[in-house]
Amino acid sequence: MSGKSYVVMGVSSSGKSSIGEALAKAIGAKFIDGDDLHPRANIVKMGGGTPLNDDDRAPWLERINDAVFAVDRKNETAVIVCSALKRRYRDRIRQDNDKVTFIFMEGSYELILARMQARQGHYQKAGMLQSQFDALEVPTDDESDVLRVSIDGDFESVLARTLAVVRAAV
Fold it and tell me: What pLDDT was estimated at residue 156?
């Protein structure tokens, strides 16, 4: 699986980070939290409670695209966590990168809201979840590089499903 990047995507509280970290460990890949790739201006803006717009996201998506490119060039495997809610965001990450696969952590608004409300110390507020779902452009069948994983069930079940779809796609 070297020279390959898996971008774990979905709305906040869909399990991207926890599943992404566990997946990386299970397949011997490096783990990259996409939030760590935000430029300083985005971090300051989000820290002040102001949501990012598409112009703000452009340099961040460029950095994620560069990370995927570097993984390929170094013949490594990586799991990168990035919401990638819109098709154009996924297309930007795909640009000139043919060894990237998206893993869509798919769940209902009700399920994710319940998980969000149970989380302690996360910056995302439950009231912002609707805006995430409003922004989400669910991957369509013409996005052949997207694997879907239902997040229904406990962590171990979701991880097992994730590993199964990744291994089946190799």
Answer: 98
Full-model pTM: 0.92
Q: H/E/C letters for each residue in 56-86?
A: HHHHHHHHHHHHHHHHHHCCCEEEEECCCCC
The residues near 40 (Cβ < 8 Å, ≥ 6 apart) are none
> What digits encode the pLDDT tens for the residues 52-73?
888 999 999 999 999 999 999 9
**Domains of the chain, CATH where assigned:** 4-169 (3.40.50.300)
